[in-house]
Amino acid sequence: MAQASAAGDARGDRAAVGRALEELAAAFGNRLVTSAAAREQHGNTLTWIPNQPPDAVVYPRSTEEVQRIVRICAARGVPIIPFGVGTSLEGHVNAPQGGVAIDFRDMNRVLRVHAEDLDCVVEPGITRKALNEQLRDTGLFFPIDPGADATLGGMAATRCSGTNAVRYGTMKDNVLALKVVLASGEVIDTARRARKSAAGYDLTRLMVGSEGTLGIITELTLRLSGIPEAIAGGICPFPTIAACCNATIQTIQSGIPVARIELLDALQVRAVNMYSKLGLPETPMLLLEFHGTEASVAEQSQRFGEIAAEFGGGPFSWATRPEERTKLWEARHHAALSNMALRPGSQMVATDVCVPISRLADCVVATQADIERTGVTAPIVGHVGDGNFHLTLLVDMNDPEDVRRCKALNERLVERALAMDGTCTGEHGVGQGKMKYLLAEHGPAALAVMAAIKRALDPQNILNPGKIVALS
Amino acid sequence: MAQASAAGDARGDRAAVGRALEELAAAFGNRLVTSAAAREQHGNTLTWIPNQPPDAVVYPRSTEEVQRIVRICAARGVPIIPFGVGTSLEGHVNAPQGGVAIDFRDMNRVLRVHAEDLDCVVEPGITRKALNEQLRDTGLFFPIDPGADATLGGMAATRCSGTNAVRYGTMKDNVLALKVVLASGEVIDTARRARKSAAGYDLTRLMVGSEGTLGIITELTLRLSGIPEAIAGGICPFPTIAACCNATIQTIQSGIPVARIELLDALQVRAVNMYSKLGLPETPMLLLEFHGTEASVAEQSQRFGEIAAEFGGGPFSWATRPEERTKLWEARHHAALSNMALRPGSQMVATDVCVPISRLADCVVATQADIERTGVTAPIVGHVGDGNFHLTLLVDMNDPEDVRRCKALNERLVERALAMDGTCTGEHGVGQGKMKYLLAEHGPAALAVMAAIKRALDPQNILNPGKIVALS
Question: pLDDT tens digits for B283-310?
């Protein structure tokens, strides 16, 4: 195998980059952009990771054009960074070695809907809301809902999930197949459209979560779900975080097919109250949603209410009317935004650990104590059915001491989760920010396997280099 | 990367094998077996693929012992073939280059059950029935049910599924993490016990379905499900295969969370009648099962009955009493066995294509016509909710013309499925038997990616060589 090329240098081989940009300009005309504004927007990290802009941004319109970009860059050893809408949270779209960002803005179509098969084929630049808008008349929807209106390409690349994962799974469960441009410029389809297959290595799942480091996704075949006949939901206050968690465990063990079960700690409820004027009791709380028939959601809600009461929770307030339900989930989706009111002028940084659900209460309670001791402001929301929770750290980026304190808190949080057989990232991905935890999480031999796969598929290390695994 | 070693020769380097066996005998005593009977049992294929016995069989008791075996074999370039109970159907346990079979008979324990997390940790040699027997008191079960009472290690290695997959998914969806011994003898854990993670490449899904060619599974963390409060089921005759398929599509689109929906063609119903004395109408038929609460399974059954009627099916006969239901599903599980009565003295060979569900009726009907034209006996059962169906070819293995005819029929079946965007194997895996179809299914570039991964993880080509991808 070839060694990592000149792309391993801090900003790569400048002359090689220059020649690649000339070739790209000749091929793409004004769809190759090198303005400072465009470059900076494409290296934006939304977090405390410093921005590292690419040398240029190119806007392809087809798989063939992506192949052309990759071939031009590969011939010069120039890095390539795929870009959706830039909502990733761990520096995934940074260009630490320079190179060319591929922006999928112009590849945002739904190519085919196979309603009978409950699947569709889309380009990577479509966002989840735009997709569901276009699917509406089919009676089908795509259930994965990260907080941001991310692109499907980015969602697959980071193996994201969201509030529906407890019922519908994550991106790994909802991608049937991918079209991927390899580091060589060759294109592969990772699978057929059959709902299952045992025909060799699972290249689909290998690409999902590989963050553009093994190949560039140019088409996705997605599994769709039927829009439920009835949706019911509501909120249920609890005396403690532990009671929230125990009620959740019991709910899942009982086989209640809850669609969403979200934890808000008391501080998060206060922020939501301030922002969305909901007047909720400021105590730990579960927000729930049930999908099914009218009879089934009624039964699910009733059974959940009984379980909640067992753990001292309640009363469970149904949001029966759609507008009430919408208001509630908008409040949940605005949780992050509402937190700004808790510390005006601060920037939000989201953490993302996930632990076995039996350890969730311990992990959240210990983390709350740590937040208290550290003296920072950090409300908590959790996809409690999966054991995944987020602190929203409200950081004064102009105060180095505050940044240091918050970073240290996050490090302790990750260590705490790993000690509980958890993971450093439930759904945000590794990017640059979580690389340093992978050794502790996976151990040297498993990390070496990841590096071996990276070397086998991208021997020049040109695909989103400096993310997930560092090659020497 | 090192080149494939002497293991690439037909039966490997005999002197190297001899030295490895000496070392293994010194380490394992009478747990290393070289008798002809044991060797032949471990190269048994249950199909028309010729048996290719290993040179020896060894019975480890721990991950450390597996590491020891791998290190001894790796030092000599001797092939290693993992073995569960030998129910695979495509020559997975054959030893075309000789070598050592690792039989997991003595590694069959449930190590831990985490009831609150709905997971458990098991050794690879436990069978699915033994596992569920041991889980019974917890109120949990492991839902994947291939026809045979296979081992969990083999089930993960082949990415198998079964009748419950439409509701509970396949092995890829129900394995949380694996402990794997690599070709180097090093051991990795592919993931933590958290229910989801975005922390790097999905090594769990890479190993699931890799058939022992990338590593040897020595522990599995499995996702469990709650035993449903109520189970209802029944049978529903239809005028045509197409009507069965269309009713299934409508059922799934409507969001009815059917747990099992199995197709039997008229010939299969006749065989089941002969064997299990059920007196069913000899027409295409769906067997169904619903899981949930009493109210929910009643509602699901009623709604299915309405859908069936729309497509000319029915009446839908409920099997309300457990003993009726058991009789029905025993008949389904004995479908293969019952087929022997259709052609006494023949051997059964199972085919295994899977297509998008919208193409299933076309694929089954065209295949029935092909069976008729070819003049062979081949009843059909299908996991129709997934688009996966099996012919049971009843072959006279002493008649070369009959074998040739049946093989040609299977080839045409695979081509038909591939032409419909399907796969050559829905759940049986590749082994030796399906290798020749992978190029047509995946194309040269994707197959080259699989080979590159194989080379990266097993540069000597000692892990179950000659399966899935051939290395030159």
Answer: 999 999 999 999 999 999 999 999 999 9
Q: Mean pLDDT across the stretch A231-253?
A: 94
Which of A206, A209, A452 is opposite residue B198, by nearest beta carbon?
A209
Residue range(s) of every CATH 3.30.70.3450 domain in chain B: 230-324
DSSP H or E segment with residue B113? strand B110-114
Q: For the domain bounded by A110-226, which CATH number is listed?
A: 3.30.465.10
Question: Chain B contacts of A117, Cβ < 8 Å?
Answer: 356-358
For B108-226, CATH number out of 2.60.40.3500, 3.90.1170.40, 1.10.760.10, 3.30.465.10 equals 3.30.465.10
CA distance B93 to chain A (A): 16
Residue A223 has pLDDT above 90, yes or no: yes
ipTM over 0.90: yes
Which residue of chain A comes nearest to B173, CA vs CA? A173
pLDDT above 60 (res A115): yes
Q: Is the pLDDT of residue A6 over 50?
A: no
Per-residue pLDDT, A411: 98
> Where in chain A is CATH 3.30.465.10?
110-226
- A334-372 tens-digit pLDDT: 887 788 888 998 999 999 999 999 999 999 999 999 999
Q: Do A202 and B209 touch (CB under 8 A)?
A: yes
CATH assignment of B230-324, given 3.40.50.150, 3.40.120.10, 3.30.70.3450, 1.10.630.10? 3.30.70.3450
The predicted-structure confidence for A394-448, as pLDDT tens digits, reads as follows 999 999 999 999 999 999 999 999 999 999 999 999 999 999 999 999 999 999 9
Q: Give the chain B residue nearest A198 (alpha carbons).
A: B429
CA distance B221 to B161: 17
Fold topology of B338-435 = Alpha-Beta Plaits (3.30.70)
Three-class SS state of A378? coil
Tokens read off for B155: 């089930």
Q: Which of A196, A201, A352 sits opposite B165 (nearest CB)?
A: A196
pLDDT for position A11: 72
Q: From the centroid of its chain, how far is CA A332?
A: 17
DSSP letters for B42-60 = HT--SSSSPP---SEEE--
Q: What CATH topology corresponds to A6-105+450-457? A: 3.30.43
**Radius of gyration (Cα) for chain A, nearest Å?**
23
Least reliable range by pLDDT among A4-18, A271-285, B235-249: A4-18
Q: Which residues of A touch B173 (CB under 8 A)?
A: 169, 173
How close B329 gets to chain A, by Cα (Å)?
23
Residue extent(s) of CATH 3.30.43.10 domains in chain A:
6-105+450-457
**CATH 3.30.70.3450 domain position(s) in chain A:** 230-337
What is the pLDDT of chain A when averaged over all its residues?
A: 94
Q: Do B358 and A172 touch (CB under 8 A)?
A: no
Contacts within 8 Å (CB) and 24+ apart, B327-332: B327/B276, B327/B278, B328/B233, B328/B234, B328/B235, B328/B278, B328/B287, B329/B233, B329/B287, B329/B289, B330/B276, B331/B272, B331/B275, B331/B276, B331/B278, B332/B163, B332/B262, B332/B264, B332/B272, B332/B287, B332/B381
Q: Which of B192, B196, B303 sits opposite A386 (nearest CB)?
A: B196
Regions of chain B where pLDDT drops below 70: 1-10, 472
Q: CATH 3.90.550.10: does it fit domain A339-434? A: no
Q: B446 and A161: CB-CB below 8 Å?
A: no
Which residues are registered as beta bridge partners of A390? A381
With residue B319 as reference, give the H or E element that holds it.
Answer: strand B317-319
- Determine the 3-state secondary structure of A294 from DSSP: helix
Class level of CATH domain A230-337: alpha beta
| Nearest CB neighbour to A172, from listed B205, B352, B356 | B205
